[in-house]
């Protein structure tokens, strides 16, 4: 492929006009930059379940519209995933409900266990992707410049390690009072600037730890 490979850690495929992930991508790469291309589909696993060494994956500024992360069982070391600047309207994290009441958590338990930073800025999401709590190490989630309209009580459920939430420049009009209640490690920022909030949020703010937290609420409609 036209990618540049340093032979050991870094794979640079940005600005190569590729439309698919190159088959000769080295599984030993620690950082892969696939940004600014024409990629429409990204599938983590090729079915062989061979583990990659990737820690940092940049897929920003492509043409991806739908993405399923439940297949990413071959990326146990991935720490940062940048999906900004695509056309994503559906980001699937949850597994389908098992048939006949059976339970199979083997795949879910391996869903990106090391992921700390998820960036989905400048996409077409109209809701917070359900299942963020399955990313057990997630600390930062950036979802600014989407079309998210409200924050529901289960949107950040079980996100016990979450420290930083960026929801700036969406269309948020409603936030459930318990939306951030159990996020005990929030200590950096909850950014709600440039939304469509019209009423004060005392119940939400009381549930947050102001001694460690910065909350941004400017440029709303109140």
From TrEMBL:
<dbReference type="InterPro" id="IPR001611">
    <property type="entry name" value="Leu-rich_rpt"/>
</dbReference>
<dbReference type="InterPro" id="IPR050541">
    <property type="entry name" value="LRR_TM_domain-containing"/>
</dbReference>
<dbReference type="InterPro" id="IPR025875">
    <property type="entry name" value="Leu-rich_rpt_4"/>
</dbReference>
<dbReference type="InterPro" id="IPR003591">
    <property type="entry name" value="Leu-rich_rpt_typical-subtyp"/>
</dbReference>
<dbReference type="InterPro" id="IPR032675">
    <property type="entry name" value="LRR_dom_sf"/>
</dbReference>
<dbReference type="Pfam" id="PF12799">
    <property type="entry name" value="LRR_4"/>
</dbReference>
<protein>
    <submittedName>
        <fullName>LRC66 protein</fullName>
    </submittedName>
</protein>
<dbReference type="GO" id="GO:0005886">
    <property type="term" value="C:plasma membrane"/>
</dbReference>
<dbReference type="Pfam" id="PF13855">
    <property type="entry name" value="LRR_8"/>
</dbReference>
<keyword id="KW-0433">Leucine-rich repeat</keyword>
<keyword id="KW-0677">Repeat</keyword>
């Amino acid at each position: 492929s036209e990618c540049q490979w340093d032979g050991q850690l870094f794979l640079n495929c940005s600005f190569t006009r590729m439309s698919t992930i190159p088959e000769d991508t080295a599984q030993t790469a620690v950082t892969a930059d696939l940004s600014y291309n024409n990629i429409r589909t990204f599938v983590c696993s090729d079915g062989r379940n061979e583990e990659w060494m990737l820690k940092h994956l940049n897929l920003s500024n492509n043409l991806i519209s739908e993405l399923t992360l439940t297949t990413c069982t071959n990326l146990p070391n991935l720490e940062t995933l940048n999906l900004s600047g695509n056309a994503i309207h559906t980001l699937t994290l949850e597994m389908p409900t098992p048939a006949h009441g059976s339970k199979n958590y083997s795949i879910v338990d391996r869903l990106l266990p090391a992921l700390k930073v998820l960036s989905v800025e400048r996409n077409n999401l109209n809701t917070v992707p359900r299942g963020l709590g399955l990313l057990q190490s997630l600390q930062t989630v950036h979802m600014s410049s989407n079309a998210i309209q409200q924050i529901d009580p289960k949107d950040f459920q079980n996100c016990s390690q979450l420290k930083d939430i960026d929801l700036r420049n969406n269309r948020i009009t409603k936030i459930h009072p318990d939306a951030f209640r159990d996020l005990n490690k929030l200590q950096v920022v909850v950014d709600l600037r440039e939304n469509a909030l019209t009423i004060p949020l005392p119940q939400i703010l009381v549930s947050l730890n102001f001694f460690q937290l910065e909350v941004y609420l400017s440029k709303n409609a109140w």
